Amino acid sequence: MDDRKLTIEVKAHLGEEVKLRPYGAIFDDVEALAKSLDTNGTNTEKDKPKQKFLVSTKTSWALQQALGGEEKVDEIRSPVGDAKAVKNEVELAGMRACHIRDGAALCEFFAWLEDQLINKGSKLDEVEAADKLETIRSKHEHFVGLSFDTISSTGPNAAVIHYQPERGNCSVIDPKAIYLCDSGAQYLDGTTDTTRTLHFGEPTKMEREAYTLVLKGNIALEQVKFPKGVSGFALDTLARQFLWAQGLDYRHGTGHGVGSFLNVHEGPIGIGTRVQYSEVPLAAGNVISNEPGYYEDGSFGIRIENIIMVKEVETPHKFGDKPYLGFEHVTMVPMCRKLIDETLLTEREKQWLNEYHKEVFEKTKGYFEYDPLTMKWLERETQPY
Asked: What is the structure's pLDDT at 52?
């Protein structure tokens, strides 16, 4: 890296054991490495197997040439990313813990926002709401910062998938329109990414139908059981099936890998139609998002995102010797009752929703012992169907 970007304090912390080299030095260094392979006899003696360098399929052509070109290089998908995507038990426990704290922060924020808009008639813009959410999050244990800029969007802005509100140049939140909040945080024990879509007034029939279809897809994906070796490419249709049945869809992937106090978007796994998602099967220990949506340009947008973790599961029967996998959710934030059309839900889906809301209530209620506003909101939003 460019060591001019490091402060004296950082250099002192790294110490003498960490050697810094400028980016450009990599070409001379790997060229010297390639020559050393020849001079030690490994590639010249006929009775020894010829050695090659393994490089990532994303390695630049210039770096390959510095290593000696095609004769000395084999391209493979890096095994480093695959291994990093499989979390250990400490990382998984951290993900469960930080999502409870993060869920409590979101519950407090949504209760506060509803009170401000409906009971107090406050005029808040999208950035002011995002700032409040960050303030609430920051008081929780192990909080370090946001995992990405909060998508705080009202009405037609919610239909812009990667909407970014600008300070001083964004919309005032309309309590009579859909509000979509996609946000996350970095904690010392994990990374969060949650999307909830809310309505503080009276949603239209189409808004409720679309929300419920998205919710059904979210539930269907989480409940699936599948044999080891299946990729996220194969599971994508589960989240879209109910929208497809009505001639609807969404123009983004269904899920992305999530790091452990690292990148909120972490490869190589994912759920979607991208070709690379077919290359890497899901494995126990993977942490991934489950976020189907629907967007009506110029009108409203809906997305429901939970973070789920891949785990081994039991099945009634065995087919061959492959273990079966399933998902465990860690996101602890209620769904929006006003936007759910109960008539579109099956009994199994209602059961899942009731169990999920009971879990959310039990795991987050302790944070609101002295916060009657949020407690009242939480009790209302987690009532069983």
From this structure: 87
Alpha carbon 298 to its chain centroid, in Å, reads 26
Instruction: Give tens-digit pLDDT for 69-113.
Output: 988 899 998 889 999 999 999 999 999 999 999 999 999 999 999
List the beta bridge partners of residue 325: 226, 312
DSSP symbol at 342: G
Contact between 43 and 51 under an 8 Å Cβ cutoff? The reply is yes
pLDDT tier, 38 (very low <50, low <70, confident <90, very high otherwise): confident
pLDDT of 49 strictly over 80: no
Q: What is the CATH classification number for the domain harbouring 279?
A: 3.90.230.10
* Shared domain check, 136 and 46: no
Q: Which domain holds residue 28?
A: 3-76
Q: At what angle do helices 347-364 and 89-114 cross, to 10 degrees?
A: 90
Residue 348: in which H helix or E strand, if any? Answer: helix 347-364
Give the three-state DSSP class for 115: helix
For 138-155, how does the pLDDT look when each residue is reduced to its tens digit (9 = 90+)? 999 999 999 999 999 999
Strand order, beta sheet including 226-227: 226-227, 324-329, 306-313, 287-290
Question: DSSP label at 263?
Answer: -
DSSP assignment of 295-311: EETTTEEEE-BEEEEEE
